C-alpha cells in the first residue's frame, strides 16, 4: 500500500472510531454507573440508596419476576421511568441521559443478570 | 480596514488591563493556592469526563464554573471548616460494598477534606468566584423568590418527583448517592440550581443524576423548598 492510500485508510478509520469512542460503553459499565445506586452491586434490589425508599427497587437477579417482562417493557421502564409503566416514580426515566443503543445494551445485560430471556 | 484592526487590538489590550485590574491582588494569591494545592483533585478549567472510566476516576467536583455555582460566603466558611456533602464520595461505586442487607458505605475509603486558614479561605473563595465556565447555561433571574411550606416542598421532592431516592433532606434521611440538599439554600446560587436540575449532564457530563423534565412551576417550588430547608437547624 502506498503512503497516500494508507493515509486515507487511517483518516477514514478515525472518522468511524470517533463517534464510537463516545457511545460504546458496555451494558455492564452503564449498569454499574447508573443502576447500582438503587438496584445494588449484586443487582438484587439492595442498593445503598434504599433505606428510606417507600418502594423497593426490582430484584434484577430474580429470574421468575424478570422473565415475566418482555424486552420492550424493560426498554420502556428504563427510558421513560416507573411512571410510564404504572410503577413507582422512584424508578427514574433515563431517556435524557442514555441513548437508545445504550438502553438496548442495558436490556441485554439485564437478561444476563436474571439468566432469563423473553 | 487598518484602522479597524488597530481599534480591535486596542480593545484587546484594554480588556486584558481590565481583567488584571478587576482580579486584584487577593484573587491572584487565591489562584496560586488553587493551582498548587487543589488542582490534583479538582478540574479548574476542563469540561469534565468524556467516558465512564474518567467519571469513575474523578477526585473532586469540577471547580471551573465555581463562580456560577457557589455562594461566596458559604465557600469562605466551608473551606475553613469543611464537612461532608456527598455521603458516598465522588463516584459512589468506589465507596460502597455489599452488606448483610443493602449495600453499605465503606467509611474508611472516604477521606476528610483539607481545611484552609481563615485568610486563605477568603482569598481562595474570591479566586473561585472568578471561574465562570459554562455561563451560557445560566439565565440570570431564572429564580423568582417565593415561599413554600416544608410539607408541600417535601411532597414535590419526594412523592411527586422521586428526588429523595438519592438525596438526604436531613442528616441521615434520604438516599446516599447524591449530595445532601438540606444545605443547598446556603451553598448554591438559585439560578444555578434551576439550570442544573433542568440539565445535570450539561454541567456534569455523564453524571448519574437522571434528567427528568420539570415545569418551571416545579423548579421554582423546589428552590423555595431548598431555601426553607437551609433555615432549619439540624
Could you describe the 3D structure shown?
- The complex is a heterodimer of chains A (118) and B (234).
- By secondary structure, chain A is mainly alpha-helical.
- In chain A, 53% of the residues lie in helices and 0% in strands.
- Chain A is built from six helices and no strands.
- Chain A has helices at residues 3-23, 27-34, 36-39, 63-67, 71-80, 100-114.
- Chain A starts with a helix and ends with a helix.
- Residues 9-22 of chain A have low confidence and may be disordered.
- With 234 residues, chain B is mainly alpha-helical.
- In chain B, a hairpin with a 2-residue loop joins strand 3 and strand 4 (173-174).
- The model of chain B is unreliable at 1-7 and 16-24 (pLDDT under 50).
- The relative contact order of chain B is 0.13.
- Classes of the chains: A mainly alpha (118), B mainly alpha (234).
- Chain A binds chain B through residues 21-22, 25, 29-30, 32-34, 36-38, 40-42, 46-53, 81-82, 88-94, 96-97, and chain B through 50-52, 55-56, 88, 91-93, 96-99, 101-105, 159-162, 164-166, 173-177, 201, 206, 208, 210-213.
Structural key phrases:
heterodimer; A: mainly alpha; Cytochrome Bc1 Complex, Chain D, domain 2; 6 helices; 0% strand; B: mainly alpha; two-stranded antiparallel ribbon; two-stranded antiparallel sheet; 10 helices; 4 strands; 4% strand; globular
Distance between the termini of chain B: 65 Å
Give helix % range of chain B: 40-55%
Radius of gyration of chain B, CA atoms, in whole angstroms: 20 Å
Assign the structural class of chain A, choosing from mainly alpha, mainly beta, alpha/beta, alpha+beta, or little secondary structure.
Answer: mainly alpha
Task: Pick out the low-confidence regions of chain A.
Answer: 9-22
| Number of spatially distinct domains of chain B | 2
Tally of helical segments of chain B? 10
